[in-house]
Design a protein that fits this description.
With 474 residues, the chain is of the alpha+beta class. The protein has 3 domains: 109 residues, Trigger factor ribosome-binding domain (Alpha-Beta Plaits), CATH 3.30.70; 213 residues, Trigger factor, domain 2 (Orthogonal Bundle), CATH 1.10.3120; 97 residues, Chitinase A, domain 3 (Roll). Strands 6, 7, 8, 9 and 10 form a 5-stranded antiparallel sheet that branches. It has a 4-stranded antiparallel sheet with strand order 1-2-4-3. Strands 5-11 form a two-stranded parallel sheet. Helix 9 packs across helix 11.
Length: 474
Amino acid sequence: MKVTVENKKGLNKDLKVFIDKETINSYMDEKYEEIKGSVNLKGFRPGKVPKEILKRQFGKAVFGEVLDKVLKETSTKALEEKKIKPAGQPKLDLKTYGEDKDLEYVLSVTELPKVEIKSLENIKFDEYTVKIDESETDKRLKEIAKNQPNFKEASPDTKAKKGDLVSLDYKATVDGKDFKGSEGKNTQLTLGKDLFLKGFDEQLIGVKKDDEKVVEATLPENFPEKELVNKKAKFNCKILNVKQSEEVKIDDDFAKNLGAKDLKDLKTLISKQINDEYKNSLDQLSKNQILKEIEKIKVDEIPENLIDEEVKILSQGMSEEEAKKNKKNIEEKAKARIKTGLILNEFGEKNLIKVTEQEVQAEVQKQLRMMPGQEKMVMDFYQKNPSALASLRGTVYEEKILNLIKEKGKANKKEISKDEAEKILKEAHRHDHGEEKKEMKKKSSTTSLKEKKLASKKAKSKPKAKKTKKVSKK
């Protein structure tokens, strides 16, 4: 195989590839040997059909398959030989080809630009840690205790009031008739929370142990028996007991009930929890600073085909008039996004960063935890939308790259108070909100820049050859 580079125009290059007919014939012979054992022709034993007979019978189909294979293999080798990383799909133009002929074709390719990443190892950014005062921990501890009510059974003559826990059995009817689910045993209601049926528990204020009380309530819109929706039901209630809340004592026993070793350990865990609540947001600020610094790195030329592709994504949801009006801004934004993607991708490749299937699944599980009750819907979404899963992989890939840049960079470490953290985050939010107002309205894309063939994944850089008929085996 002989490869020469012609017509260099910036990032655009034509690779002229020549393969002599002897090489093509050797491929043809291999294919004939492959099919000989499985072809059945009248008058010949299996595996004994002469090559000339096979050639007359299957020559065109065999050549088509061989040509497809040779083009895929040699085009990939040609790009590797000339150390070219294609930005998108190369175009292939056949010049000469045929049985017992030399093969010559031109591979037109737009090359990814060379980008400088050495400066990333010295990139500067702020790294925050939040110092949590003991008073903040104690405040959170009291809030937790308040939400962990401790109920103690009241005396038989105690009348229930708001905040008390009432246990009851009930039997309900609509228009004097029972219905499915009309009975309840040992149902517990905290009066004042209105969590059962609207207006139900307030009618229990003043009841005592062993009282019987008729409560009326309207069955809700989501009631399983559709014919009873919005109908008034009567509940004959038998009060089993009334319990009153006691102030929870914050001590070692309380801490152990929450899974800590003791009170000191619980306070440590709470401090860490508060810190973590700010850490993720503050870490994101650090990564935003890194991305801003990356934007300053110069890239001489950006492939036009990638710009066009990104402009289409940014223009989604816009009218033709709106897209034309904002064309310059869209193109600038497209260039900035592509440049950042190119630099991050180059850094990722040089540092051999990979995303495993386990990491992608861990990210899916993270998404599931963020949407309790909708887990099946989320799983179905990712199973039915490979592009969404690819975007998730791209997110994990970028996260790993930015984390490594942080490790190699020069962090300006700052210890701040909780109030300072809130102030910094509030200011960042205000600034981002202001920037968003300046942005054009656009439909967000699920496709990550990293997933749009910017990586030099060999499989994706193979040009598609013309489809040919497969060899039929009789």
